[in-house]
Design a protein that fits this description.
It is a single chain. Helix 9 packs across helix 10 (239-251). The radius of gyration is 35 Å and the shape is flat. The longest helix has 48 residues, at 85-132. The protein has helices at 3-27, 32-51, 85-132, 137-149, 153-166, 171-183, 187-200, 205-217, 221-233, 239-251, 255-268, 273-282, 287-298. It contains 13 helices and no strands. The protein has three domains: 1-53 and 88-132; 133-236, Tetratricopeptide repeat domain (Serine Threonine Protein Phosphatase 5, Tetratricopeptide repeat, Alpha Horseshoe); 237-299, Tetratricopeptide repeat domain (Serine Threonine Protein Phosphatase 5, Tetratricopeptide repeat).
């Protein structure tokens, strides 16, 4: 590549680097994702500008000592060996690969920062709402949900209790409070809160299902089945609930109901291998079909 071409490339990449840096300074207030993307792009152009900058070759011979004569005109100085075409290609590949990696990491960090910024913005908005309306149920619930989603259950419980302070019969407040106790493995508190919720809202299917979960994880299968059946009758027909109910009926030796519920489970989610395996045992005449389907979804 000629010297003039190199100079043009240097100017071009320098201008692009300056332009990216200018955009970075201008758009930085929009958030960290902009900083990551434009920062990576600026570094990329800086690398290219440095790479194509002309370099003055340096002679490798040493300065003459006092008792020596300087090199004569016929002496040929040794300069550093220029890069071969293969070495240049390898260096370009390394630069482009590193730059691409920086940009990809920047985009990934930007997306993560964007999600976090949105969540923080939602919480900040709700907190601002509470400053003017301390009893706003939506804001209290949203902040509680935010703490719940990051596993800060004590803080979530505080805000759900604030919801119930404003409205003691609030269905979401009661259910969310019971769910926190369930996650904290305080099953007695969870059960009591759910029964209170159901006393106000007897058709609250999710509350019946969560009661079933409380007894199921404690291996109280007979009580769990009662509440799961209530949830089923109220319209809770998720694959998870149907699958557990099939298992519980099988434990009670009620094969007919177990088969029906396992089949209904597969109508909701055809990839549940365990349901196929249990049907193969409960209906041995069709075991080959169920085992084939189980193998299909196993991997």
């Amino acid at each position: 590549m000629s010297q003039n071409n190199n100079n043009n490339l240097v100017k071009r990449y320098t201008l692009l680097a300056v332009g990216s840096a200018f955009l970075l300074a201008l758009l930085a207030p929009l958030g960290s994702y902009i900083i990551w993307i434009l920062g990576g792009t600026t570094l990329y152009f800086v690398f290219l500008a440095i790479y194509y900058s002309p370099r003055k070759p340096k002679a490798t011979f040493s300065a003459p000592q006092a008792d020596q004569k300087p090199p004569t005109a016929q002496t040929t100085p040794k300069f550093s060996t220029p890069l071969s075409a293969q070495q240049k290609r390898r260096l370009i590949f390394i630069i482009f690969g590193f730059s691409a990696l920086v940009i990809l990491m920047s985009i990934f960090m930007a997306l993560a920062g964007l999600v976090q910024s949105d969540n923080e913005a939602l919480t900040d908005t709700d907190r601002q709402t509470l400053l003017s309306d301390p009893d706003n149920l939506d804001a209290l619930t949203n902040i509680g949900n935010q703490f719940f989603n990051v596993g800060q259950y004590d803080s979530a419980l505080y805000y759900y209790n604030q919801v119930l302070r404003v409205d003691a019969q609030n269905s979401s407040g009661l259910y969310n409070k019971a769910l926190v106790y369930y996650r904290m493995q305080d099953y007695n508190q969870s059960v009591n809160t759910l029964k209170k919720c159901i006393s106000f809202y007897p058709e609250y299917a999710e509350a019946h299902a969560l009661l079933g979960d409380n007894f199921y994880v404690q291996n109280n299968y007979s009580e769990a089945l009662v509440w799961y059946r209530n949830a089923y009758n109220q319209g809770a027909r998720s694959a998870e609930i149907l699958h557990i109910m099939g298992f519980l009926y099988e434990q009670q030796q009620n094969t007919t109901e177990a088969i029906r519920l396992y089949k209904e489970t597969l109508q909701q989610d055809s990839s549940l291998v365990h349901a196929y395996e249990r049907l193969a045992v409960l209906e041995p005449g069709q075991a080959k079909k169920y085992n084939t389907l189980a193998e299909k979804w196993r991997y």
